[in-house]
Structures are given as structure tokens and as C-alpha cells.
Amino acid sequence: MKSKIPCEIVQDLMPLFIEELTSEATNREMKKHLEECNECQAHYKNMKSRLVGEKEQEEEKSVKEINYLRKIRRNNNKKVLFGILSVLLLLIAATVVKLYVIGYRVNSYDITYLNTDESQLNFGGIFYDISDTYKGYRLKTEEDGRKELILYARRRSLWSRERVFNLKINLNDLETEVNINGNTVKANGTVITKLANDLYNAKNKYVGDMSSNAKIASILGVPKTLGNFTNSLQTTKEPYGWTMDFEKSTSNSNIFEERIKSYACVLIALIDNLGEVSWKYTVETEKTPIERNNTITEGQCTEYIGSPIKSFSKSPEKVQELLEILKIEY
């Protein structure tokens, strides 16, 4: 049975039929018509070939566009990666130059000697970090006009291997007092140790302030040298007193007495209303431990030193003088 659909309608529907956008009923009628009509069949083949070609061209164009975009992205990724690597290399190079050539400020070092002669400051020591080696120093002027000596180090390398440093500086170059890691060197050559400066800054008006008392004792090195102790204060009447009861026994009472006597005089000097210091400890003997106790007063310290003991708290220079008289090392 011949199809009743006119060729014009079939040809109008043909693009939709080729794209498979027509219904099943339309598809049946279209196929039936194409089987019977040579003209529409030829038109169908021509249109399908053209549409498929256009579709392939579009797909090819899309593929080219996608490939182009991928190429751009790859190039951008390469540029970004190159930029990141360049920055990393610059940072590494800058770090290497800083650590091994230019150097950096160092505060962690042990001073082995610090003294002056008529015209020269002699200063030496060793860095705590074994990878630090001496690079140089700089005199930095502070806001108050005083100066600070800053040491610079660089990392240990084939061309820089020495941790020890020894400096000789003309006193005329100082012009004013210089701070060297807590120590003070005056323009006239006077040296005030870090210990003297720290003790002066920690001096205390009232013996009743136990935390301040303990700070002074700690700076002096009493616990480190003689061992831990418990405290008791006598503040009901003058002379106000501080008693230390040492936990650790000693086998040499002479050395213990000499050290605690020196420490006690410093404590009396730096605590304004402290009038006497007492101590208790145990001496180990061949037979049996013996408990000892002793006391030193303000008057006895003055007699021992040869000057009023309280006068040594007036300045860091006076504290330094007291330490030197008592042979307390820094």
C-alpha cells in the first residue's frame, strides 16, 4: 500500500527524522514512504550525509577548541610551576647567603674573659651552638646614647669553622658605655659584670617580700652552689632576719661557711631592712652527721668588708666592687 504522506511533508520532517527527534508513529510512516519513493530516498541520503558531515565538522572543531584550551592550560601550569620554583630557588639562595655569607645576630654565647687595659677592651668567648662560627661585630647606638655590642655568626662551612672569638677594641671607639650581653663596659675602662647588673636591678626594700629575696639568692647562685633550702623570716622586731635551712649536707664546713658568709653579706647589702642572715646545715663526719648553724649581722659584714655594707647597693659599680672584694665570680 502506497504511503499517503506527500513528499513535501516528508522532506520537511526529514531533518527531525535524521536527528531521531520524531515519534514512533512518524518514524513508521517516514520509513514506509522512503521505501516507496526514490526521490525522497535520494533526498534523505543527501541530507543525512550533509548533516553527518556538519556534525563531524562541529565535533572536530570542538575537539580542536578543547585541545587548544588544554594546551593553554598546560602552558599556564608550566608558567605557574616555573614561577613557584623560581621563588623557592630565590628563597633557598637568600637563606644560604644569609646563613653562610652575610651572617646573623647571636646572643647565645659564653664569655670566657672580659677585661680592659689602658686603651683596649679585651673580650672573648665561644658560641653555644656548635654550628655557629664567628663572623664579626657591630656597635649599635641605642636611643639613650649608650651602645650595644652585637655579635654576628654564620653557619659552619669549609671557609668558616671557628666557634671561638677573641676581640680587641680600642676604648676610644666606644665613646660611651657599651652593653655586652648584659655586661657593661664604661668609656673609662670600668667593667660591670652581668651578675652585678642583675643583682643591682633585683635589690629589694623589704625582707618581707620573699619572692624578691629568692630572686636575689637565685641570681647569686646560692641554690646552685650550696643546694636547696627552706626559709624563715623574723620581722617582728629589728634587726630583721632571714634564716636558711639547707637540705643538702656538706663534707667541708670551711668552704661552706666561707661561701654562705659572702652570699649573706650581699643579701644584707641589697635588701634594705635586712639586718642579719642565719643558716643551718649538716656536716658529714667520719663518726656521725653534725648540725651546724651560724649568723652574720649587718655590723659584722661592715667589719668584714671594711666599708658600710649598705653603701654597696647605691650603684651597679658598687655592687661590682662588693663582688670583687668577696671574690664572687660571675
UniProtKB/TrEMBL annotation:
DUF4825 domain location: 199-284
Stretches assigned to the Putative zinc-finger domain: 7-41
Pfam hit, one: zf-HC2
Organism whose genome encodes this protein: Anaerocolumna cellulosilytica
Name of the molecule in the record: Uncharacterized protein
